[in-house]
Amino acid sequence: MNKTPLASVCIRSYNQFQYIGQALESVLKQKTTFLYNIIISDDCSTDGTQSILQHYASLYPNQIKLILGDKNVGGPNNLRR
């Protein structure tokens, strides 16, 4: 079986502590017949969002890729990052 994901779910976040876990759970619960990964770009959150993201990435290391910004660059640039 090919181990290359067929699709990527791209999520950008900034200070989404209350909601990011629910968003990730929603994606992870999807039933598919193909491999997919989740790419999350966080725009230097200051509310604990990054700790939640790191927790999920440790639970799903082959499926979740984090891009953690060290400087806030705004929504469009965070998505391009």
Please write out the topology.
Elements: E1 7-13, H1 20-28, E2 36-42, H2 49-59, E3 64-68, H3 75-80
Parallel strand pairs: 1-2, 2-3
Folded structure, characterized:
The chain contains three helices and three strands, in the order E-H-E-H-E-H. A three-stranded parallel sheet has the order 1-2-3. The chain has helices at residues 20-28, 49-59, 75-80; strands at residues 7-13, 36-42, 64-68. With 81 residues, the chain is of the alpha/beta class. Helix content is 32%, strand content 23%. The protein is globular. The mean pLDDT is 93.
Tags for this model:
81 residues, 3-stranded parallel beta sheet, globular, 3 helices, alpha/beta
